[in-house]
Amino acid sequence: MSTPPASHSFESAILNALQRLVEVVAQLRSPNGGCPWDLAQTPETLIPYVIEEAYEVVDAIRQGNQEAIADELGDLLLQVVLQAQIASEAGQFDLKDVAEGITEKLIRRHPHVFGDVKVQSVEEVHQNWEQIKADEEQSPTEPQRLTPRLSRYARSLPPLMAGMKISQKAAAAGFEWENVDGVWQKFHEELAEFQQAIASESKANQQAELGDLLFTLINIARWHELDPAEALEGTNQRFIQRFAQVEAVCDRPLSTYTLDELETLWQRAKAKLAGGD
């Protein structure tokens, strides 16, 4: 008897591991001896966990901790399997449908790999993907409209990411300034309107003008090929690092320091971190 190829053994190990995970989740959801917490879950109650686990995967990747990445990917995979298990119990779909669906989608959207299409660059791959995606979503009896896609971005993505996506797609469709000077002019207009709202208008108008100002900043970021979500994430981390430096040298509650004292400590923290000291 010949020894099976190593790749075949590896694939079998993966399938066995996935099958065991599916069986464990099914047992957790079993009315006979299952876990009360798991049995109480619905697709809706699990939404916060899906979001949380996705962000924890991102954080682990950014940290470059391979053990943490594997662990967090497992937690995210659990959410996929659990959602499929709940749907299967309701007779809607199962994990097989999920896997087959994404497999077929990948094949359709990669005709340069699984078909006869020729591409010369990553940009061509992206353009083909977007066109195939648009064709899949377009009803044959209705004119092509961008609004449904923009609405989906607004529903499904974090606000900064959604704003960038909406801005990019609208610009690609021709809804765009002639040059970046026009975007900066719009920014100053929106800043003045926000200041006016803060000074004398209702909370609802203040909120609306703040949103307009932020969306214009997102457009400026797009023009300069910057990622606003990544920029804010970096600022959050730098603030925490500097704040930690301030706390480390304080010998009494921060609330007892004057503003000038705190500013001095803050500038020292910035300088220390900037110098890598």
Report on this model:
The chain is mainly alpha-helical. The chain has 3 domains: about 10-110, Helix Hairpins, CATH 1.10.287; about 160-225, Helix Hairpins (Orthogonal Bundle), CATH 1.10.287; about 230-275. It contains 13 helices and no strands. Helices cover about 75% and strands about 0% of the residues.
Overall pLDDT metric: 92
CATH A-level architecture of the largest domain: Orthogonal Bundle
- Tell me the overall shape: globular
Number of domain units:
3
> Which stretches of 5+ consecutive residues score pLDDT under 50?
none
CATH-defined fold name of the largest domain: Helix Hairpins
Q: Whole-Å distance between the termini?
A: 64 Å
CATH class of the largest domain: Mainly Alpha
Radius of gyration: 25 Å
Task: Give a short summary of the structure.
With 277 residues, the chain is mainly alpha-helical.
Features:
single chain; 277 residues; mainly alpha; Helix Hairpins; 3 domains; 13 helices; 0% strand
What's the topology here?
Blueprint: H1 6-28, H2 36-40, H3 47-63, H4 66-89, H5 95-109, H6 111-114, H7 122-137, H8 147-156, H9 159-172, H10 180-200, H11 203-223, H12 228-249, H13 259-274
